[in-house]
């Protein structure tokens, strides 16, 4: 379990990135969802002991963050910008990481690296230089380095950013597999990344926790707030763009899906998707009126 208590982070040259965050994260896949600048990376860097909180604290399986060495032995971390020396092969890179993680026995390192490369489906590329890898392959190598030493907790910061849809699905499945018996904390601003496989989800916005719970609870945030209506181009143009979730051209005009507390004329209330729930939660302040005043 990861316990986060009243954690705040203020950067010297910046505002409050985290504002009194309290969360309990359980075993399994945990999605940390939030728009750009919400504070996701800051929280992950703190949990990875790369930066200290300004106030508050956290513990991982009962070990407080200030025991940084012990925490680092428990976690694997894949940062948002994962860099590898391009001239190294995957095997050479992972061997280096293994040494840094204190796996002293060369035979043990070799066998762990070989099974990890198989897990992430890079066994055929093991001896190719990383500079020849695609973005998706580099991410998979990133996961392999994070998993080296079998950490109990895996922290992955926007791992699917920049991946094509096929790689994204493959990557999600990979993480789901690894989450069995571990905590995998995954940050993203894409709802689809957490839709199918997260047991728990926390939404951060402007450094604050906006909700934490099961996926169904996030979906519920959209209840009674999602509407669909066929609109003319002129009616569409008069809408507040922040309230529009999607538009689709049909024979009757533009079918618009909007979030708001009061309907457009002729609008029908529809069942919210998870994404609707997320947008409704983020826009709850904004979506009080749908039409532009
Ligand atoms: N080193 C830093 N110095 C000053 N401000 C920072 C620093 N790192 C982050 N911030 C600020 O803290 C806030 C939270 O940033 P953070 O990167 O944690 O958010 P995020 O949710 O991960 O965003 P993204 O999805 O864009 O990566 C932002 O306003 C950002 O500009």
Straight-line N-to-C gap: 47 Å
Q: Supply the CATH architecture of the largest domain.
A: 3-Layer(aba) Sandwich
Q: Write down the secondary-structure element order.
A: EEEHEEHEHHHEHEHEEHEHEEEH
Sheet/helix structural class: alpha/beta
Indicate the proportion of strand residues: 25-35%
Heteromolecules bound: adenosine-5'-triphosphate
Strands, total number: 14
CATH fold descriptor of the largest domain:
Rossmann fold
Share in helix: 25-40%
Number of helices: 10
Give Rg in angstroms. 22 Å
Shape: globular
Question: What is the total domain count?
Answer: 2
On the 0-100 scale, what is the average pLDDT?
Answer: 88
Largest sheet: 6 strands, mixed
Features:
Rossmann fold, nucleotide-binding, ABC_transporter-like_CS, binds adenosine-5'-triphosphate, single chain, 293 residues, globular, six-stranded mixed sheet, 10 helices, alpha/beta, 28% strand
Q: How would you sum up this structure in a few lines?
A:
It holds the Pfam family ABC_tran. With 293 residues, the protein is of the alpha/beta class.
Kindly describe this structure.
This protein has 293 residues and is α/β, with parallel strands linked by helices. It folds into 2 domains: 212 residues, P-loop containing nucleotide triphosphate hydrolases (Rossmann fold), CATH 3.40.50.300; 69 residues, no CATH class. Helices cover 31% and strands 28% of the residues. The strands form 3 sheets. Strands 6-7-8-3-9-10 form a 6-stranded mixed beta sheet, sandwiched between helices. α3 packs across α4. The C terminus is likely disordered. Adenosine-5'-triphosphate (ATP) binds next to α1.
